[in-house]
Amino acid sequence: MGQANTQRDAIRGTLLMGRSMHVRRSIFLAAALAALLLVIGVSAFAVWSNARNSQERVAALQKAQIEAGVALAAIRANVYLNAILTRDYLLDLDASHVQQYVDQFNSIRAKTDESFRTLEASGQDDQQKAALKQLRNELSAYWDRTELVLDWTPEEKQVQRTPMLRQRVRRREEVFALSEQVERLITANFIRERQRITSADQEFRSSLAWTTAIALLFGFGIAGGTLARMLALERQSQAAESELRRLSGQIRTAQEQERKYLSRELHDQVGQMLTGLRMELASVARIHGDSESEISSRIARAKGTVEQTLRIVRNIAMLLRPSMLDDLGLTPALAWLFKEVSRSSGFEIHSDVDPAVDTLPDTHRTCVYRVVQEALTNASRHSGARRVEVNLSNGKGWVVGSIVDDGCGFGKGAAKGRGLGLVGMEERVREIGGSIRVVSSPGGGTRVEFRLPCPPATEVQSDTDSDRGRSRDRSDRIKASA
User: Fold this and answer.
1) Enclosing domain of residue 124
2) Which of 24, 46, 53, 72 is deepest in the core (most CB within 10 A)?
3) Residue 164: phi, psi to the nearest 5?
4) In the listed set 227, 243, 277, which residue is the last one of a domain according to the structure?
């Protein structure tokens, strides 16, 4: 017992140490998981922010490209309007219309300057700025020449009209060529800007892919570590459970041995001493006879007390460990148990016990006896049964038993609350490789079924010889006491 308690304390200390390590590892895993969630959150925010910035840049670029195209188209249109205005002015010899032409020219020139300001605000490189400056200078010269024409007299119009129109066509073509050059530069600039945006997006996607890969590896690492830790904890739990079961079995074995020892000592030593005392009192009573009635009555009371004490001692010894279980076998021990339980509880016990169970080894006989005893005790304490049926059979490699009562039964989850000792029954049966099942319902009684594997014949013979040896030792002690 002391060794078992020491081992149990050692296991408990190991479990406490493992629990402390588990807490530290849990904190580490929680921190790693928080870091992973932070990386995922930062990556998601970066994706959202970059997508929004890219969308805004693309939208601004498209808007600037459209505005630049509209501005160039307006410049070309104004050049055409100016050419038409100049031709109409040269063909119109009425001096009263001069101011009208001047106002139209100023309006066209103002609109053209506004278009140039739009182009200058569209974001340009040095080459585009140079081309735009050249176009503006050329167009300024074009406008200046138009202003000179607007000051001509009707006579000058008639004389210089044809050469001027030819010259204006040539200058107009030069302006258009420059505007096309500016348009190409603007288009090329927009293409380059679009490529820079695309390249930045690709770089961001690449960095995002790396971040995602790292996050996935990190996540797989956390998952693998968590899984490995769970498996290790499961193995430790199973090992601790197995060790506790082993210790529990050792404790039960030691308890059974202690019960057996106490039962034998009470029956063999104390019982024999009380029997001797009773016999001595009987001898004293015979010696005195009826001569001294007071002494005889006291001796009779003392004899009755001794006999009652002897019965109590024998009952305690039988309850601790019935000696007939070792001396006569399982069947007589169960018969005595049925008789005692039926006498104390008042319900009928109908039994069908296969005599072959007497050939079982001591561990199996003890297990069967304790399971039947616990089931009958539960029935007498909790069920209020009037009839109990006990069946035991030994065959086909299995010992099969059932205890059925017609009591009140119990619902699911009520067994532990009512302290029915089912855990102890399960542990006993599981320890030798068997199985047990308890079926009950409120008002439907309770049925306890168990199956135990039959041991090899050599083990049965060895245990039988040991039991015979113990019986001979007990007989020798009884003779010595007598």
Assistant:
1) 2-227
2) 72
3) -65, -45
4) 227
Same domain, 222 and 336: no
pLDDT-based confidence at residue 389 (cuts at 50, 70, 90): very high
Would you tell me how many other CB atoms lie within 10 Å of the CB of residue 342? 15
Give the span between the Cα atoms of 329 and 353, in whole angstroms.
12
- Residue 198 and residue 327 in one domain: no
Of 206, 227, 248, which one is at a domain's C-terminal end?
Answer: 227
- CATH number of the domain where residue 337 is located: 3.30.565.10
Residues 222 and 333 in one domain: no
Asked if the model's pLDDT at residue 56 lies above 90, the reply is no
Which strands make up the sheet holding 348-353, listed edge to edge? Answer: 348-353, 387-395, 398-405, 446-453, 435-440
Contact 434, 395 (CB under 8 A): no
Q: Are residues 17 and 126 in the same domain?
A: yes
Total domains in the fold of the chain:
2
In a domain, 416, yes or no: yes
Amino acid 450: pLDDT: 93
pLDDT band at 475 (very low <50, low <70, confident <90, very high): very low
Asked if 66 and 195 sit in the same domain, the reply is yes
* Residue position matching structure tokens 């506004």: 114
- Tell me the C-alpha distance between 341 and 109, whole Å: 125
- On whether residue 286 sits in a domain, the answer given is no
Region 62-74: what's the mean pLDDT?
A: 78
Per-residue 3-state assignment (H helix, E strand, C coil) for the chain: CHHHHHHHHHHHHHHHHHHHHHHHHHHHHHHHHHHHHHHHHHHHHHHHHHHHHHHHHHHHHHHHHHHHHHHHHHHHHHHHHHHHHHHHHHHCCCHHHHHHHHHHHHHHHHHHHHHHHHHHCCCCCHHHHHHHHHHHHHHHHHHHHHHHHCCCCHHHHHHHHHHHHHHHHHHHHHHHHHHHHHHHHHHHHHHHHHHHHHHHHHHHHHHHHHHHHHHHHHHHHHHHHHHHHHHHHHHHHHHHHHHHHHHHHHHHHHHHHHHHHHHHHHHHHHHHHHHHHHHHHHHHHHHHCCCCHHHHHHHHHHHHHHHHHHHHHHHHHHHHCCHHHHHCCHHHHHHHHHHHHHHHHCCEEEEEECHHHHHCCHHHHHHHHHHHHHHHHHHHHHHCCCEEEEEEEEECCEEEEEEEECCCCCCCCHHHHCCCCHHHHHHHHHHCCCEEEEEECCCCCEEEEEEEECCCHHHHHHHHHHHHHHHHHHHHHHHHHC
Task: Tell me if 245 is assigned to some domain.
Answer: no
Is 282 contained in some domain?
no
